[in-house]
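Backbone-to-sequence.
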């Protein structure tokens, strides 16, 4: 795993929740990367929502909005999970881009199929990352974050299925 830009990760409020500081920091680094990936996907979906073209414009315009609306809640929940572990969450665009594994996309000249393929790839990448993060949080004894991540994985699995159905 690539290193996380830790300049924006700091513990300012001690959380006495039975999790050692080193373990908490390891988990927050993973959550920070996840939050960053979610923000990149959120922005990509907004971009595609605005710029999709073609015969299925109306349905995809609405579909992309449903997906980014779901991710709006997801990103808020991840940032709040970081806070509940006693750390401050990143919140600037530069921090998100510095920590993200996913990459931004341009408008793709409105090509709906390319947009859907990119979104599917991103959802599936996040799912694979979540599986790894779940294993790590289990090993570190953070059942709360493990449960939280399992829920996020189910959300992305459903979202990926919906995208895959559009492509099928």
């Amino acid at each position: 795993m690539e290193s996380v830009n830790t300049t924006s990760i700091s513990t300012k409020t001690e959380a006495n929740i039975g999790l050692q500081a080193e373990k908490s920091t390891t988990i927050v680094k993973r959550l920070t990367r996840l939050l960053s990936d979610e923000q990149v996907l959120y922005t990509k979906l907004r971009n595609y929502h605005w710029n999709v073209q073609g015969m299925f414009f109306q349905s995809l315009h609405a579909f992309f909005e449903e997906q980014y609306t779901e991710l709006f809640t997801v990103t808020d929940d991840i940032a709040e999970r970081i806070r509940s572990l006693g750390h401050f969450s990143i919140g600037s665009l530069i921090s998100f881009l510095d920590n993200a594994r996913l990459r931004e996309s341009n408008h793709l000249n409105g090509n709906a199929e390319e947009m859907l393929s990119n979104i599917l790839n991103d959802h599936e990448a996040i799912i694979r990352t979540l599986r790894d993060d779940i294993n790590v949080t289990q090993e570190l004894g953070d059942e709360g974050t493990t449960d939280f991540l399992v829920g996020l994985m189910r959300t992305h699995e459903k979202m990926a299925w919906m995208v895959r159905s559009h492509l099928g």
